[in-house]
Amino acid sequence: MANKIAPLSAAMEDYLKAIYLVRGSAAAATTMVLAATLGVSAASVTNMIKKLAVLKLVRHAPYHGVELTPAGEKIALEIVRHHRLLEAFLHDALGLPWDEVHGEAHKLEHVLSDNLEDHIAEYLGDPSVDPHGDPIPTKAGVVVTSAQHTLAELAPGARAVIVRVGAQDPAHLRYLRELGLVPQARLVVLACAPFGGPVRVRVRTRQVALDEPLARQIWVNVARKK
Fold first, then answer.
1. Top-level CATH class of 1-145?
2. Quick one: which of 75, 98, 107, 138 has the fewest CB in 10 Å?
3. Alpha-carbon gap, residue 145 to 16, rounded angstroms
């Protein structure tokens, strides 16, 4: 992936990455959503968006929030690649738990050189996903995703394989790991309570229940019926 078109601050890169990730979740990257995502004030978001717009990295679309320009998306994908490669390295090579790698990778993603990025990718065998199952953009900026459904969307009796866990809260990740709800785990949906109630599943020999918001953070591939 090519270098950035101009030197940017870490804060600017954080905004570009946040816009990319928010829009990737099918949500509009509004001022309020970005403020909540980044933990800053709405006024700070407005000021930064103006700066990024001057650099032609974002544009504001009425009723659709902020959008990345092609140049802005290129930079966002580079930062996402750095972040997820670092998560994979910290987890696979150094043995950090999957609930700790996000914070550590965030500290390092802005200073990772292209040379070190290439060496990490080669050392890990050019992985396609990070420890949470999130796709790692290729060097050319291509993102390949496979999961189409969240656990909350499945009907009772459905069998599935976990592909990605979108939760980033360390406590949630520790909890899911304790339950065995990690990428590549196979499960069966036992029951789904109505009106946003819990989803009950069997993973291995254990039955567990998850509230709907957490179940929507677990992406799966549904097994075909024989």
1. mainly alpha
2. 107
3. 20
